[in-house]
Automatic annotation (TrEMBL):
<dbReference type="InterPro" id="IPR034164">
    <property type="entry name" value="Pepsin-like_dom"/>
</dbReference>
<keyword id="KW-0378">Hydrolase</keyword>
<protein>
    <submittedName>
        <fullName>Acid protease</fullName>
    </submittedName>
</protein>
<keyword id="KW-0812">Transmembrane</keyword>
<dbReference type="InterPro" id="IPR033121">
    <property type="entry name" value="PEPTIDASE_A1"/>
</dbReference>
<feature type="compositionally biased region" description="Basic and acidic residues">
    <location>
        <begin position="630"/>
        <end position="653"/>
    </location>
</feature>
<keyword id="KW-1133">Transmembrane helix</keyword>
<feature type="domain" description="Peptidase A1">
    <location>
        <begin position="37"/>
        <end position="399"/>
    </location>
</feature>
<feature type="region of interest" description="Disordered">
    <location>
        <begin position="1"/>
        <end position="21"/>
    </location>
</feature>
<keyword id="KW-0472">Membrane</keyword>
<dbReference type="GO" id="GO:0071944">
    <property type="term" value="C:cell periphery"/>
</dbReference>
<dbReference type="GO" id="GO:0006508">
    <property type="term" value="P:proteolysis"/>
</dbReference>
<dbReference type="GO" id="GO:0008233">
    <property type="term" value="F:peptidase activity"/>
</dbReference>
<dbReference type="Pfam" id="PF00026">
    <property type="entry name" value="Asp"/>
</dbReference>
<dbReference type="InterPro" id="IPR021109">
    <property type="entry name" value="Peptidase_aspartic_dom_sf"/>
</dbReference>
<keyword id="KW-0645">Protease</keyword>
<feature type="compositionally biased region" description="Polar residues">
    <location>
        <begin position="575"/>
        <end position="584"/>
    </location>
</feature>
Length: 713
């Protein structure tokens, strides 16, 4: 019995949702109450591309499509063109011509224009009808919805036509009809009953203007700061009005001109307002309107019912270059966590009114006092804001609009309806045989693994071989001799004495002091021994008498240490260990105490030898090396010096000792000044004592009855 297993195959039975639809702007800025980005639609097209084209504005609250009707009483051909009527059948159009329509025009009668309650004007009636409505300019490719409510407007209050985005149903006494957005969604032309919209701004990008954006079934991410937006719930399915809380309004002039910021709502507090693009006005509380009047130097005109801006005020407002920030929340109370801020520059309020709103073009400010307690943020507000409306979920988002120069590439985001289910992985059954590998496949896997292991081993071998070759080719390690910069060392090295250098534990690279005097560098060839460069401790024979022999000198004759056969002789001092010298290597001493007489150098003989009177200059303090050599201990050694064979030498030595006793009886022996030194840097616990006459007597006794050499040079 075979086994089965589950596999994930995509279920293709769910149809892909339609993409959002972008209603292309006309590229022009139209209107008699300002410059507004308009959009193209066509009326009466029978899918042959023979519909009548109109440039219209967007109405977020209107449920119908409205276009101008011919109005010869007040609007001529040029006026009709400004109202958005375009050329039809090769000639200028004064409005929608019902007799020339290629669509199934059906007139329903004259009825009121459906506008929300907050618009208080007594608008004239309009002709209602049923006609095909297409998006964009008329062509064989334009999307068309049949039997839509179309209103023909002959009044002056609504100069331009409008394309309504409200949902629900509206009609006359003959019956209600659903709106265009609802029918467009039901026709599966868009993902859901939703849209994204911004009005655009004619003053942006160096007064070149940025057109508006309308996306049906989604929004354009490149035109909105979604992350900075405020999401608000609608009241109900029957009341989908876009109501927000205006928690504060702040006036801020250019800080380089006037360092001041003022709140227009500090006294009156916040309020609820409706976002509606049908008209440009801001319908606000009277107290807040008074702040606008004062700051922008506005003057109310009773005839036009507009706030006008004269040339002086206009120049002052341009200089102030103030901004007005609307802080929005879900209620009228201020919230520090849930809000968004829409900031409008003065250019957003700098509008021009023209015929028939004003006889002559004049600057006006889109501000109105609310007479009925209903407040509106009109089309002016939507120049700097972007709204995303989702009727499916009964919520909307208002956020700052994005402006860039050049404009960013379009980035559409669909909004799916609640009934749409994205494709999911559906489990299906697969036979057992389909889930196992064939013998050939298994063999292939095994061969691949073996080859991979062999390649890895081969690579490791070559790596090891290369590393071994590199190590063999590398030069042997040698420690680089240390060098001391005598300039950087300063006087520390400059005044260091030879005896102090001997006591320091310098490395192999320690600087070698020059040795002067008898063993000068120039006479090194004459010297049988190399000069001493460093000494850890002075030899015992430097300042100590020679060792005493076990037997006293015979015949009571004292051997003369200094004179032997009237010849001055030197004895090389040997070191057992010192610094860089090998043990037992004899090394000459440059200057040694105890020889004030003549001596023989280079074949020249000096006969007379004075007594070894030591000067005070030869007295030295504790040395670093005294930690290693105790001179007093050497002096006190009990071994007597062996008898000298030469009696004359003994007599001469005895005579010399007597002279030393007589001359040094009252004065202690002194050392030569060149060897005087103070306390050492490293120790002060050992001092070299001056030699007494008794010590000198023992010192003068040489070994094997051979006179000792003088030790000074």
């Amino acid at each position: 019995m075979g086994h089965t297993k589950r596999a994930n195959n995509v279920n293709t039975t769910v149809p892909a949702p339609p993409k959002p639809y972008v209603l292309a702007p006309s590229g022009k800025f139209d209107g008699n109450d300002g410059k507004w980005s308009s959009f193209n639609i066509n009326i009466g097209d029978d899918a042959t591309g023979r519909g009548q084209n109109f440039r219209v504005l967007i109405s977020t609250s209107s449920p119908v499509t409205m276009v101008p009707a011919p109005s010869p009483n007040w609007c001529d051909q040029d006026c009709s063109s400004k109202r958005g009527a375009q050329v039809f059948d090769g000639k200028p159009s004064s409005g929608f011509e019902t007799q020339s329509s290629h669509g199934p025009w059906q007139e329903l009668g004259i009825f009121n224009t459906p506008l929300p309650d907050w618009w208080s004007q007594n608008l004239s009636n309009a002709v209602w009808g049923s006609e095909n409505v297409g998006l964009g300019e008329s062509s064989a490719l334009s999307l068309i919805l049949p039997k839509q409510n179309v209103l023909l407007n002959q009044g002056q209050e609504l100069f331009m036509g409008s394309f309504g985005l409200a949902n629900g149903a509206v009609g006359t006494g003959t019956g209600a009809k659903t709106t265009f957005l609802v029918d467009f969604d039901n026709a599966d032309q868009i993902p859901s009953m939703s849209y994204g919209y911004t009005a655009g701004a004619s003053y942006r990008n160096g007064q070149k203007g940025v057109t508006g954006s309308l996306v049906l079934g989604g929004y354009d991410k490149s035109r909105v700061k979604v992350d900075s937006g405020l999401s608000v719930k609608m009241a109900s399915e029957k009341n989908t009005t876009l109501i927000v809380g205006v928690t504060s309004i702040t006036y801020r002039p250019d800080q380089d001109v006037e360092a001041n910021t003022e709140s227009f709502t500090a006294r009156s507090g916040g309020f609820l307002a409706t976002i509606d693009s049908t008209l440009p006005y801001l319908w606000l509380p009277e107290a807040i309107c008074n702040f606008f009047v004062d700051k922008f130097q506005l003057e109310y005109d009773n005839k036009t019912e507009l706030y006008l801006v004269d040339s002086s005020a206009h120049q002052n407002n341009k200089q102030q270059n103030a901004t007005v920030s609307f802080k929005l929340g879900t209620s009228a109370q201020d919230s520090s966590t849930t809000f968004t801020t829409i900031t409008l520059p003065y250019d957003a309020f700098d509008l021009q009114a023209s015929y028939p709103l004003s006889e002559n073009g004049t600057n006006y400010f889109p501000l109105k006092k609310s007479p009925n307690g209903m407040f509106v943020l009109g089309r002016t507000f939507l120049q700097e804001s972007y709204i995303i409306v989702d009727y499916e979920r009964l919520n909307f988002t208002v956020a700052p609009a994005i402006y860039s120069d050049p404009t960013l590439e379009q980035s559409l985001v669909p909004i799916y309806n609640k009934t749409y289910t994205p494709p999911t992985a559906t489990p299906t059954l697969i036979p057992h045989g389909g889930g196992s590998l064939s013998p050939g496949a298994v063999a292939g896997v095994v061969v691949g693994v073996v080859i991979a292991l062999l390649l890895a081993a081969l690579g490791g071998f070559f790596w090891w071989r290369k590393r071994r070759a590199d190590q063999a080719a590398a030069p042997p390690y040698t420690e680089k001799a240390q060098e001391i910069d005598t300039i950087a060392a300063g006087t520390e090295v400059k005044h260091r004495r030879v005896s102090e250098l001997d006591s320091e534990s310098g490395g192999p690279g320690s600087p070698k002091p020059s040795v002067g005097g008898y063993y000068d560098r120039d006479a090194k060839d004459l010297s049988p021994f190399p000069p001493i460069s460093e000494m850890e401790s002075p030899p015992a024979e430097l300042y100590s008498p020679p060792p005493m022999a076990n037997t006293p000198p015979s015949d009571g004759v004292v051997s003369d240490y200094f004179i032997a056969g009237n010849r001055v002789r030197r004895r090389g001092a040997t070191r057992e260990s010192s610094g860089n010298n090998t043990p037992g290597t004899p090394a000459p001493i440059a200057e040694l105490p105890g020889d004030d007489g003549e001596y023989q150098v280079g074949g020249v003989h000096f006969d007379k030898v004075e007594s070894p009177k030591l000067s005070s200059a030869h007295v030295r303090g504790p040395s670093d090396s005294s930690l290693h050599s105790n001179i007093d201990e050497v002096v006190a050694r009990p071994e007597p010096s062996p008898e000298r064979s030469n009696i004359d030498v003994k007599e001469k030595a005895q005579q010399t000792l007597d002279n030393v006793k007589e001359e040094g009886e009252d004065t202690p022996p002194e050392r030569r000044p060149s060897h005087a030194r103070g306390l050492s840097d490293t120790t002060d616990d050992t001092a070299v004592s001056a030699m007494t006459p008794e010590e000198m007597e023992q010192w003068a006794l040489g070994e094997d009855n051979v006179p000792m050499r003088p030790l000074s040079g």
